[in-house]
Amino acid sequence: MPYREKVTKLATIAKNINEQHSGYLDSLKKGYSEIERDDFLWHFLLQSFSTMGRSSGWKGLIGNKDNYNQVTFHALSRLSNEERENVVKSVCRAAKIRMPDRKADFILGCFNVVTGMGGLKAAKQNLLSANGREGKMKFLQQFPGIGPKYARNIMMDVYHEDFRDSIALDIRIKAISEVLGLKFKKYQEHEEFFLDVARAAGLNGWELDRLMYNFRGDFESEIAKA
């Protein structure tokens, strides 16, 4: 099937799914208020590591407040280096997130980066003052464990205006590409395909991303029927 036909096919499906779940995207957009948190950057770094590789990890690290409260930036700031390492590794294992020791190293590395910037307030200010989407992505990718996907997703989770035409390519969205028989060598090419789909469906990239992430089964079922 030619490229444009695949774009049109997926755009029609996306438009129908959006209509079937009327109001869903608007409810997600209310997450914009999360950017007002003083610990915005740290919270979303933790959230990224909790879901990286397995979305169910959110429940153990973020949803479980006993675990979460031990690894807030302020809680970790009160500990010695050795105590901090022990606590983070213990919590990551207890939370049953994927690759707990590796994620613990990421969290410890991010703690050092934030500390080096002067703390949570300064780090957040540096992020939000970075120039446009590319500047903010470059800033976020200096944190251990944060690559192109999560550099986008952190800002997309709060519906930031610089990231409304972005796609955070994870295994669910890549699975939709596979069903369509699509393969891309570069992240940017893959993202651009979905942005073409979004435009054809009358959506922005963020809206299409969230629909595909949350209703992957619907997309795959409709692709198989079409």
Share in β-strands: under 5%
Number of strands: 0
Outline = elongated
Structural class: mainly alpha
CATH class of the largest domain: Mainly Alpha
Word description of this protein:
The chain is mainly alpha-helical. Helix content is 69%, strand content 0%. It is built from 15 helices and no strands. The protein has helices at 3-20, 24-29, 40-51, 57-63, 65-68, 73-77, 81-94, 100-117, 120-129, 132-140, 148-156, 171-179, 187-201, 205-214, 216-225. Helix 10 crosses helix 11 (148-156). 33% of the residues are buried.
Précis, in short:
With 226 residues, the chain is an all-alpha fold. It folds into 2 domains: 87 residues; 130 residues, Endonuclease III, domain 1 (Orthogonal Bundle). Helix 7 packs across helix 8 and helix 10 packs across helix 11.
Write the layout of secondary structure elements.
Elements: H1 3-20, H2 24-29, H3 40-51, H4 57-63, H5 65-68, H6 73-77, H7 81-94, H8 100-117, H9 120-129, H10 132-140, H11 148-156, H12 171-179, H13 187-201, H14 205-214, H15 216-225
Helix pairs in contact: 1-13, 1-15, 3-4, 3-8, 7-8, 9-10, 10-11, 12-15, 13-14
Task: Give structural attributes.
single chain; 15 helices; mainly alpha; 2 domains
